[in-house]
Amino acid sequence: MQETLTRTGFSFASIMKTKFLFLSAFLSLAVSLLLSAFLSLAVSLLLSAFLSLAVSLPLQAQGHRGIGEPPLDTRLMELPAVRKTDVILVYHGFVVCYNTTRLIPDWVAYELTAEELSGEVPRARGFSMDLDYKAPQAMREDYSYSGWDKGHMAPSADMKWSQVAMNESFYLTNICPQDPVLNGRDWHTLEKYVRGWASKYGSVWVVCGPYVTVNASGTIGERKVTVPDGFFKAVLRLEGKEWHSIAFLFTNDSSKQPVRDAVVSVNEVEALTGLDLFTNLKRSIEEKVESQADWEDWGR
Predict the structure, then answer these.
(1) What is the pLDDT of residues 47-86, one digit of tens each?
(2) Do the Cβ atoms of 254 and 179 come closer than 8 Å?
(3) What is the separation, in whole angstroms, between the first and last Cα of the chain?
(4) Residue 163: which of 206, 111, 124 has the closest Cα?
(5) DSSP-assigned letters across all residues of 154-197
(6) Which residues contact residue 194 at a Cβ distance below 8 angstroms, ignoring those fewer than 6 apart?
(7) Lowest mean pLDDT among 48-62, 172-186, 197-211
């Protein structure tokens, strides 16, 4: 009888201990799973919030040109619409949307005022990379013996008001392979017209750049810098309360292309390039202003 009780008591204790261990293990597993799920959810939410914030921030605020880069004022009248994937380089006198595949700008935009035209800063001595921009870009060697000029988008002659602006206009992020005849003749003539308009009207807003359609001339240099098929320039002015625009298209070759014959509307440039120029114009007047292509409205 005693043996039976002892065995029975021992058997009961063992069962209770086993149940306790099983319950303890179950609770430990449940807590572990709940904690793991909570941490996973928390990390997921934090990561989602971070990525959402990163995507919503304009790329130019993320230091493409290193510490101290000025932020982009998206209200500037000269700006095209900035896409989330655009690489925006903010300089002292102009803004560049840089194409890291083609190694040329997609567009360059700036305001030019009559006051700035009185500057006397001498022309910078030579071209260079933007050493504050830590990403692929063209180098001078890419242009050597290529037969193409280093063509300014924001002209150095428009930057005489500031030594910094002048020096930055010679960064290769502001440069495209350009036909020497075009660069020295018709494109140069248009640049002088723009300065004349800035003087006459007090200020003008300018956006210009290359266009690439069939890429007929391929690339140059070891880094394969894209040679554009042509160039565009669009100009905006405010006279009284009325906005006026005009645009120009040139092919990247040595053919004679008088500025007057190159006149097109901003809408035509947008159709060719896929850009949304002068995006800060009010929607109620944008179509009217950007459909203009009247050389006489701008005069000589």
Answers:
(1) 555 444 443 333 333 335 554 566 788 899 999 999 989 9
(2) yes
(3) 125
(4) 124
(5) S-GGG-TT-HHHHHHTTBGGGEEEE-HHHHHTHHHHHHHHHHHH
(6) 112, 158, 204, 206, 233, 235
(7) 48-62
The amino acid occupying position 106 is D
Distance CA 279, CA 111 (A): 15
Q: Percentage of residues in the chain with pLDDT exceeding 90? A: 73
Report the mean per-residue pLDDT for the chain: 86
Chain centroid to Cα 291, Å, comes to: 25
pTM of the entire structure? Answer: 0.78
* Length of the chain measured in residues: 300
Structural domain 59-298, CATH architecture:
3-Layer(aba) Sandwich (3.40)
Task: Please check whether residue 94 is in contact with residue 61, taking contact to mean a CB–CB distance below 8 angstroms.
Answer: no
Note the pLDDT of residue 56: 38
Q: Average pLDDT for residues 189-210, to the nearest whole number?
A: 98
Tell me which residue of 117, 108, 196, 110 sits closest to 152, measured CA to CA.
108
Residue 299 pLDDT? 77
In terms of DSSP bridges, do strands 104-113 and 149-152 run parallel, antiparallel, or are they unpaired? Answer: unpaired
Q: Cβ distance 270 to 222 under 8 Å?
A: no
How buried is residue 188: exposed, middle or buried, by Cβ count under 10 Å (0-12/13-18/19+)? middle
How far is it, in rounded angstroms, from Cα 76 to Cα 79? 6
